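Deviations from the work plan: none for this task. Representative record:
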Amino acid sequence: MSSPSDTNQVAAMAEEGAVSRFFRATEIDSRMIGMIAALMVVWAGFDIYSGILRPNVGLFGGSFLTPRNLWTLLVQTSSIAIMSTGMVLLIVMRQLDLSVGSMLSTIAVAIGVLQVFKLGPWLGVGNEYIWIIAVVCGIALGAIIGGFNGLLTAYAGIPAFIVTLGGLIAYSGVAWALIRGETVAPMDKTFKLIGGNGPLASIGPFWSWVVAILACGLVVLGLLNGRRERRRVNFPQRPVWAEVFLGLVGSIAILGATAVVNSYPWAPKVIENYAKDNGLAIPPGIEDKNGDAICMAGEAVVRCVDGLIFYTGYAIPVLIALAVGFAMSFISKRTRFGRYVYATGGNPEAADLSGINTRWLTVKVFMLMGILVAISAIITSARLDAATNSLGQFNELYVIAAVVIGGTALAGGVGTIYGAMLGALLMQSLQSGMTLLNFESAYKDMVVGTVLVTAVFVDQVYRRRVK
Amino acid sequence: MMKLATAFAAGVAMSLAFAGVASAKDKTIAVSWKTFQEERWKTDEAAIKAVVEAAGDKYISTDAQGSAQKQAADIEGLISQKVDVILIVAFDSDAILPSIKQISDAGIKSIAYDVQFEDPSALYVTFDNVGVGRLMAKTMLEKGKSEGNFAFIKGDKGDPNATFLFEGITEVLKDGLDSGKIKNVCETFTDGWKPDGAQKNMEQCLTSNNNAIDAVVSENDGMAGGVVAALEAQGLAGSVPVTGQDGDKAALNRVALGTQLVSVWKDSRALGKVAGEAAVALAEGTAIDALPGVQKFKEGKKGIEMNSILLAPNPITKDNLADVITAGWISKEEACAGVAAGSVAACN
């Protein structure tokens, strides 16, 4: 660790304050810290306030910071978070997709019709291939619609705003026409699991720990790989303490989140039904209304502390969202495609002149957006166990808001995947929290709108300060 | 000029036709639809047409294609054709008023079909919307739960119907709410009546009450679907009664499966039939207030008193599921999909 660049850096750092030295050494985006801090404040606030109204088992005595609510919050966020990762790339490229909501309803309805009215009768209801065919067709449809938006934007020269505004209106018509405003239900049994509605659509504590340990391994590998790469291209290294710190914080966050989702017990009724269906014996015990397990008290099934109990673990849509976030971060940072996107967003003319096929690149980014919308459509319809043309309505607004709160500049060139996902989580936290507190919905809208504008304002001020 | 000439010629032809037979038959009943883009109006049209033609009268219609101007022009055209009664599904209930004046000046009777416009000369035929809320609550008390923790999942806050419904609901539940037998533990509007929004609202409600919810009053079937999904995740679907309205196919299936208590059903065929019969009677010269079932109605925006026929909706539960099947609204297979043999009479 005694290369010349290292010593230079150390000398420069000595002149800085402790805080900025810390950020410089760890290379942490201080805006991300700001967002996480905002999130923590919001969470704590909701927990304290809900605790005053109705005491519960949360961290501060409320019902917000409970494993159950946090678990639900993650599931509720996943659909918007997935779409926001694609929207980041579009906005970075100075494009926009207003049609994601309508696209979502079209795809959801199309795969709903496919599995309920076509594949069900054809292959037999419950056939194990139904969900695979539905998912593949949904993703293909998303790529086609997204690609179509992209072609019109890039090759026909129509501004993306107009193309996708038209799409917003037209695709909602398609969704309506497909089923004439009716509801398609119920979805295929396996397909339904993708929605993460309830404990049975989760992977359970054991596999959650496996996933967590693999993720920690990835964090460490990533850090090691980063060091090797930096050495190869003779780039200044982070100090070892900073690397260790990042590795520890990352791992603790992953393990902590896993511990939280793993401590969300199944609802007593669900345990009871599961035990009945699988012929499990329910142990005898003494009734305790505060317990999460179930026991037999004579003939009756009651809640108790020491009895039959299962824990949930990560819900499938949350895992999908995390995987998408990881993949999209990788794509945006480590691939040529990603670098071209940022280069084009920073300066389209320069990118074009330097040989990037910006038109084809635009089509590809729109196509990627379509695929992500399809994944969200699959999750949303699976979660509701039904598809209607109203699914996805207004989603374009929430997706764009999440991206903007996450620090993506509408002028293009700047934006991060994790920022957008955190933005989505913050928005959903506000909405869920206010619903939990029984806020009137007019006030909910006012708060969410205000937060959106304030977040962008704070971000602007911050950027100016840094300059 | 050509248009005027044609209209004139048509008018002459029409009046000649009428001059020939002045009997009770051969009257012309016209309908001015606001739009034919929505599937449901086709059902209504079939019902009205059947009644009119069975009485030996003539049925004609125009489609305003979602435009208030087009509707005004349509109505002028109908007046010049000297029809006897015009049924109107108003696109804009205020902009239509000058046209209604023209109709009554020409001595033609008008019927406000399903959408109200406030003109005392017209007959208003619709479902009793406050009644839908009352019926939901009544069915909940009689066949679901009559005490405990109630959650209220309301529709879009911008839609006056969401509030009308809630008025009807609270009116029936008032005694229970006042005495404390019924506790309102969650009450929330749902943006755009969206089912996935209702699902999230219900999840939050269950979380904040630790699942101690005894009954859910959802204002329509789509949202009831979201509510049932949220209940299912907690193993509560089927043990917590849920209300709804519209007679959605998926909801009727839930009623059969037992995860939804009731879907209040407004049969547009019944509405069309009643309106068609009223139109035929008016064409034959019956006075508006002499029609069967007419009552005064002044609950509109401006509070103008009108003659109206308010149809009672039909609350569909497990017990009368056969009503929707025999009416041909839904097939037995669709309604009974996945239902265990012998659990619902209508499915046997």
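Residues 265-310 of chain A form one domain.
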